Structures are given as structure tokens and as C-alpha cells.
Amino acid sequence: MLKIVYKKITIRGFLVKDFMNFFLDLLLTTVNHLRTSTLHTVEEISTCLESIPQVFIGLFHSSNVGKKIVKLII
């Protein structure tokens, strides 16, 4: 706890309503990307039970882009 006090950590959050003035622009841009198929998803699919710990650790690193899936075939 003292490390946090000495290093002066700042935690800041936001409320969605604080950015409602951007909502219409977001909606129009998203609809346009969906219509032109320029919006793509990024998925990383692992297929074994042993990969679960590594996938979980990857959630907290800069490699976390898109959706991480562990597909278990039973």
C-alpha cells in the first residue's frame, strides 16, 4: 500500500454519458463500416485445454487484441 502512496498512482474512470455527444458520429461510422465490410474482427483461437493459462495471461498484455477463444473439442 505504501508503494502506491509514494508513487502517486492515479486511477480515473469515465461514465458513458460523458461521451454521448460522440454517439451519433460513432453510430454513423460503425454503420458505414458494416455496410462496406471494412470492419473486421480479430480472433485468436486455441484448441487445447493446456493453452488456457497462457490465453488468460495474454489478456493482460499488449498482445490482447480482439477476441481470445479456447475451443474445447469433447
From TrEMBL:
GO terms for molecular function: oxidoreductase activity, acting on the CH-CH group of donors, NAD or NADP as acceptor. This is Alcohol dehydrogenase superfamily, zinc-type. InterPro entries: MDR_fam. Coiled coil: none annotated. It comes from the Eukaryota.
